[in-house]
Amino acid sequence: MAGSGPASAELLLPSIQPLHTLQLRRIYRAATSCDATLLVPPRPYLRGPAHRTKGGPAAVNCVKEETSRYCGKEKDLMKAYLFRGNVLLREFPTDTLFDVNAIVAHVLFALLFNEVKYITTLEDLQNMENALKGKADIAFSYVRAVGTPEHRAVMEAAFVYGTTYQFVLTTEIALLESIGAKDIEYAHLYFFHCKVVLDLTQLCRRTLMEQPLTTLNIHQFIKTMEAPLLTEVAEDPQQVSTVHLQLGLPLVFIVSQQATYEADRRTAEWVAWRLLGKAGVLLLMRDSLAVDIPQHTNVIFKREERVPVEFLVLHDIDLIVSHVENNMHIEEIQEGEDEDHDMEDPDIDIQDDEVAETVHRDRKRQLPLELTVELTEETFNATVMASDSIVLFYAGWQAVSMAFLQSYIDVAIKLKDTPTMLLTRVNCADWSGVCTKHNVTEFPVVKMYKEGGNPVSYAGMLGTEDLLKFIQLNRISCPVNITSVQEAEEYLSGELYQDLLSYSRGPVLGLFSPTMTTAKEDFTEAGNYLRGCVITGIYSEEDVLILSNKYAATLPALLLARHKGGKIESIPLANTHAEDIVQIIKNAFLETFPEITVENLPTYLRLQKPLLILFSDGSIIPQYKKAILTLVKEKHLDSLTPCWLNLKNTPVGRGILQAYFDTLPPLPLLVVVNLHSGGQVFAFPSDQAISEQNLLLWLKKLEAGLESHITILPAQEWKPPLPAYDFLSMMEAAASRHSARKGPEYMKETGVQESDEEQHEDKSAIRKELTETLRIKHWNRSNWFKEAEKSSRHDKEL
């Protein structure tokens, strides 16, 4: 890799035993990419010091070599040393060099100490920003931990661009949150435009890189930052080419003329800032152009070279940005990591399960476990009885448990300075008796223990936000007993529990006369069921008619306070049981036109209605949203569930569309999916605009059976691709086979010692057969795809 990198260095690894071939290969490749010097460990037939070869690390065998400085102490054997010449630059614990990415990242991080500044606070970032105003731009990146693939990508970019831009790195989530970043669980890179800022009181404009942090993506992003923000041209747009097209990004031409030049240039600059890193923006002068442009055209869109340009009429900046974002598809640039798959063990770094792979990748990440209390068989009862507690039951060997443990610790971080419940955890792998006693039969499980009540199990998504909502809403009893009309008004307005409003869509108040005992019991049961999800309250005083008359509610009734619209809706509850009340409350808080995600899709599928889905590759176009909401308001979509899916937030949407159309169609696209009866999929005509009139006419044709479906979804169950292993049956089968093969001479008792030996042999044989069975099962599992591929290839040849 060419660039302004540091001088070559040497990487020395003391060892009391020869390193594994795989380890040496990885270290060699990593050191080669860092311009380090390789010291090859001595072969048995070599004498004297280690042989040096330019381009890699050294492994020193401390048993055979006189290297007392690095082999004298046991702790030194767990370190790697980085040299420049004879100068020791850095020591690394060997457990931090766990793969090629970690080695490259750590070595470059040590060598590029001037080019990459590590910071931990917002004050550090502001000081760095002020110091570079008018001098240089900043590439600010956040990675979850050092040694990750994203950290390596940032360091390799700094190796190339470190003398041009100041690279700043952090691993602090709080710092990322403080600058207003979203999706903080992912790595981020911001470009701070500080070089053009001359006023120290003015903030540097920031541009977020929206692609995943890979070396090539960062290179592409920085190249777009180096390109001119706005370029004026006076030639045929079809012939114009810029660096953006070379990088696979589209061009946007803002059409101008002499009379409106100043206003058009300001508009073009606004558009350029909004699309920076996504597209190139040019100002096209119509007056000096020999090519004819349609009279009303004010925007020209060019997707790529040798593709006809599009002539558009867009009178709003948001419409221009939306059109570009919805019509560009940048394929993620994948790093060429095939070289890292070693022949000795092709599966050593990649797990076949996505959750297991995530846990394996983050295995070196240090979690602040001290923020939660670890419970044992001796401390469980005393701790839980002493205070209201949240207990996480997990298994240290299970991938889902370890993945959720990270979310659990994130909750503990958010609640660090908040006087809430005590967060505790039990590792069922160590304390199986405790977990069995508390009816834990699967992992992970979260239970809430409060004094005087039964434990409440958490049934939400295994994520930080949902668990945090559950804990915060359980700070109050549900339903809350309201005792006066004034308190009820404060409850409905949100004043009573203002600090909990962000965790709930709005409070629910049940109105009952004092004599409605059964109805109150049903509502109380529903409130207990919904605790942790919704704030519920109950009012059954003598003056309940004051509220009933004010809100036109017939007793018994529900009052739902919608804080977004500021409205209070009444729902009658006559002859309604607890389970019906639960469903009423759940349905009442569903969004009218929601964005479908992996998390909320099951909720909307339970409505048992066909889905009217608007697929969009980015934010939804306002006029489309307005058309659909108007039809919802006019009750034309009561038989459907209208929703939209953002492919950028939910990439699985691309696979869904490909299943419908075979190839990815142009977006935005509107479809009706009848999942619950027939599985037909209908597509709104692509040559029609999504307007109220066109959409209503199309829906009437659907209802009359005049539209043809594009595909029918198969009525198949979602099952695992391979059957689960029944280990107990396998052990019993192995044991029974062994017993059947035993001869009669082994059935005689010849003494206690002989009997013991026989039992030992039996167990050894069983273990051996079980191991062989598992080995065969593993081979079948790992080679099933290869055999299927061979069979498929043979069929194609035939």
TrEMBL record:
Lineage: Eukaryota, Metazoa, Chordata, Craniata, Vertebrata
Occurrences of domain Thioredoxin (ranges): 373-472
Species whose genome carries this gene: Equus caballus
UniProt cross-references to InterPro entries, sorted A to Z: Thioredoxin-like_sf (IPR036249), Thioredoxin_domain (IPR013766), TXNDC16 (IPR040090), TXNDC16_2nd (IPR057642), TXNDC16_3rd (IPR057645), TXNDC16_N (IPR057639)
Protein name: Thioredoxin domain containing 16
UniProt superkingdom: Eukaryota
Domain TXNDC16 N-terminal: 58-108
Pfam families in UniProt: Thioredoxin (PF00085), Thioredoxin_6 (PF13848), TXNDC16_2nd (PF24509), TXNDC16_3rd (PF24510), TXNDC16_N (PF24508)
Positions of the TXNDC16 second thioredoxin-like domain: 109-228
Region (Disordered): 738-765
TXNDC16 third thioredoxin-like domain span: 229-318
